[in-house]
Design brief:
Blueprint lengths: L8 H13 L2 H22 L6 H20 L1 H4 L5 H26 L4 H35 L8
Length: 154
């Protein structure tokens, strides 16, 4: 018979998921995934579904980074600087969401789903901008702690 006292890999993954969502970064990434999904639904119901490309790309990128940070692969795969990659992802996401959302809100007369997607996109733009700010603060604090003295005099 199988040993039922050992934890299954699925349970271990679920515990990692629960623990990571409770962190600040995990909460922000989960919120980015959720709001991107809501925006995809709004744009899918709109007459102009092409605006959903930004939401799909940003949701996929957020899911990838969520999985990498949740499993701790960022510490195992050190070829990529994950903090800087995450900064660029969040910064570009904030700019793209703000641009497309303003276009949708301003030009979406008569299309309620497009306007709703635009409003949620503005919220997502602010969320991605906040994520960019928190990553910038993290980079700034690690640079101050690791800065070496250039003074050779004793």
């Amino acid at each position: 018979m199988a040993d039922t006292t050992a934890a299954s890999p699925g349970a271990n993954c679920l515990e990692k998921l629960k623990a990571y969502v409770k962190t600040q970064k995990g909460y922000i990434l989960a919120a980015e995934i959720l709001i991107s999904f809501i925006i995809i639904i709004c744009y899918a119901a709109s007459l102009y579904g092409g605006y959903s490309a930004v939401a799909i790309c940003e949701m996929v990128f957020a899911m990838v980074f969520f999985g990498i940070f949740m499993t701790g692969m960022d510490k195992q795969i050190q070829v990529v600087n994950w903090v800087w990659s995450d900064l660029f992802r969040a910064g570009i996401g904030a700019v793209l969401y703000l641009i497309t959302s303003l276009i949708c809100v301003i030009g979406g007369a008569g299309d309620g789903a497009r306007i709703a997607g635009g409003v949620f996109g503005l919220i997502a733009g602010l969320l991605f901008a906040y994520d960019t700010y928190t990553i910038f603060l993290q980079i700034k604090s690690t640079r101050q702690h690791t800065a070496a003295s250039t003074d050779d005099r004793v």
